[in-house]
Specification:
4 helices, alpha+beta, four-stranded antiparallel sheet, disordered C terminus
């Protein structure tokens, strides 16, 4: 009776080990000498090459790459990092494209917003032109007062000199401001031009393909005599 129990226990232990091995899968590879090796654990002879883990049903569970040296691992890490950055950039570009399409579903909407942006800059330029005209009128009044000191401008009173300096400084400020606004108009147009190039591509991708009439049979016309 004791012998039967021991045999049964040994059989159960063997079955458990076999079941565990099957659950873990089978590892296989071809070593450097061309031999196909199979094992129930990763194969040491194939650390320098690819090996497969196969399920008991015969399907490939995973592919294990060769073990890398420290230098090879560093190179691989750099490649992985570059690939991740490229994927992130591609995802960000797609996000921007979607946002651009949502904002400008067609050319009319884009042209309208360009016009509004330029109109805002033009309004600022008009306000500056009005201020420049006011300064010109002030300068006329200052020049009229300076006529009294034409023979000796040094005798002009300090308040009048300060008004002249302030006027000249303000005129210079307005000139720089208008120049900046002209540059802003160029930047606005450049931005919308660049967007339009991209949008034309996106709109083209969204447009339905043209219906081809090639090969369509035309009705036959018969003549009667």
């Amino acid at each position: 009776m004791l012998s039967t129990t021991v045999v049964f226990a040994g059989w159960m232990a063997a079955m458990l080990v076999s079941g565990a091995a099957m659950a873990q899968g089978i590892y296989t590879c071809v070593d450097g000498k061309g031999r196909k090796i199979t094992s129930d654990r990763p194969i040491a002879e194939c650390t320098d090459r690819t090996q497969q883990e196969i399920t008991p049903s015969g399907t490939v569970k995973r592919v294990i790459g060769p073990t890398l040296t420290a230098q090879e691992r560093a190179v691989q890490d750099e490649k992985d990092k570059a690939a991740a950055e490229a994927r992130a950039l591609a995802a960000e570009e797609k996000r921007r494209d979607r946002a651009l399409l949502l904002r400008y579903p067609n050319r009319q909407v884009h042209d309208k917003e360009r016009g509004l942006a330029l109109a805002q800059v033009d309004e600022v330029i008009k306000a500056s032109a009005k201020r420049t005209q006011e300064l010109a009128e002030q300068r006329k009044a200052i020049n009229a007062e300076l006529e009294f000191y034409k023979k000796d401008p040094n005798k002009a009173p300090p308040p009048l000199k300060r008004r002249l300096e302030e006027n000249e400084s303000s005129v210079a400020v307005q000139k720089r401001f208008v120049a900046d606004q002209d540059m802003e108009k160029q930047r606005v147009n450049l931005r919308f031009d660049e967007e339009l190039v991209k949008l034309k591509q996106l709109w083209g991708m969204m447009a339905p393909p043209p219906t081809s009439t090639a090969g369509a049979s035309s009705p036959k016309v018969t003549s009667s005599n």
